[in-house]
Amino acid sequence: MKSRLESNKQTVLAFYEVGLNQKDFEAASKLIGDRYVQHNPRIADGIEGFEAFIGQLRTDFPTLRAEVKKIFADGDFVIAHVHGVRVPGQLGTAIVDIFRLDENGKIVEHWDVMQPIPETAENQNGMF
């Protein structure tokens, strides 16, 4: 039997794939709990806010891709280190997303921090 931590990570990975990469609101909404609290100030709270966000992505960035580079789970929280590219050929953005899942394994809360990937860096370590 899969551990709850592994199950939570798989839910978040599925959320990236169907929600952000495929922009399939119906499929992604099945992974969201009854109450969805959004901490990104550019996205409204609730399932309606997420639906509007997906609609905006479909219109403004239809080829946007989110590639999860690392994923961690601790209790009800899943943290993902993600490379987001809105338009092919761009360097993109380094993102850390934090999700809280409920007792049913549904996503109920989200935070994120984002940093554009620069053309040059003062070190050779990379952002991932």
Low-pLDDT segments: none
Shape, please? globular
**Mean of residue pLDDT values:** 97
Question: What letter string, H or E per element, gives the SSE order?
Answer: HHEHEEEE
Proportion of residues in β-strands: 35-45%
The tally of helices reads 3
How are the strands of the largest sheet arranged?
A: 1-5-4-3-2
**How many strands appear in the DSSP assignment?**
5
Gyration radius over CA: 15 Å
Terminal residue distance: 31 Å
Q: Biggest sheet: strands, sense, closure?
A: 5 strands, mixed
| Structural class label | alpha+beta
Helix content: 25-40%
Structure in words:
The chain is an alpha+beta fold and 128 residues long. Helices cover 30% and strands 35% of the residues. The protein is built from three helices and five strands, in the order ααβαββββ. It has helices at 4-21, 25-29, 46-60, and strands at 32-38, 65-74, 77-85, 93-101, 107-116. It has a five-stranded mixed sheet with strand order 1-5-4-3-2, with helices on one face. The chain is globular and about 45 Å long. The relative contact order is 0.19.
